[in-house]
Write a structure and sequence with these properties.
Helix content is 34%, strand content 12%. It has helices at 46-55, 86-97, 99-119, 151-160, 190-197, 210-227; strands at 9-10, 13-14, 22-25, 39-42, 124-126, 137-142, 165-166, 199-203. It has a 4-stranded antiparallel sheet with strand order 5-6-8-7.
Amino acid sequence: DCSQATGASIRGEKVGTWGEIAAFSTMYRKNLAAGASSGLIFTKDFETYRTALSYSDRGKPVWRLDLNLRDPQYASFPALNWNSSEMSNAIGLASLRRLDRTNELRRIFLRRLFVALAEADTVCSPYAFHDGFAPFYFPIFVDQEKIKVSVEQFATAVEAEGIPLGAKYGCLVNTWPWITEHLSDTFVARNALLTRNASFNLHLNENYGEREVKDIVDAFAKVSNAYLR
């Protein structure tokens, strides 16, 4: 699942290039975005590719030249209709062409932010970072020992200063009450929980520059000073 790291690399390899199949999100605001809130898959196995292609369009073997697309009796299996539109694909292709540049501009912004954050008097510190990142958003840790409110309250106050962010990450699956009966074990992702509870997610844009660095650090400093113990 590379949905939030499209174009990232680790140990010199692009994420999604190993394993049987990789999934990439094209939701709005992401590094690779299309008009529709959909996604892409990548596989090196031809039969897996064909199966995925069929699943995207009601189970039809769309590669067959003799196929009547309007006749459902030729479907290989029941499936939903997940094919995208031409307009969304055009937006997605344009976004794909600039993906490397988008990721590099976001990394440049983050490096500037880290320098300014280190020089400022705040209770905030950045998540571990390397040059292979393709940041969709970026976790900012809050020193909970130094403030008299919760991390979520702190983040909400920063957001009220006009800084786009996610105050609490809700996509840690095993914290969802309804999922318990469907899980195969009782494993608790403690490190993920600790990270989630100690941080908030700063939203990013490749057009952010020095002004946004100053706005963000100023907001962090203002809220830090207001909530210091």
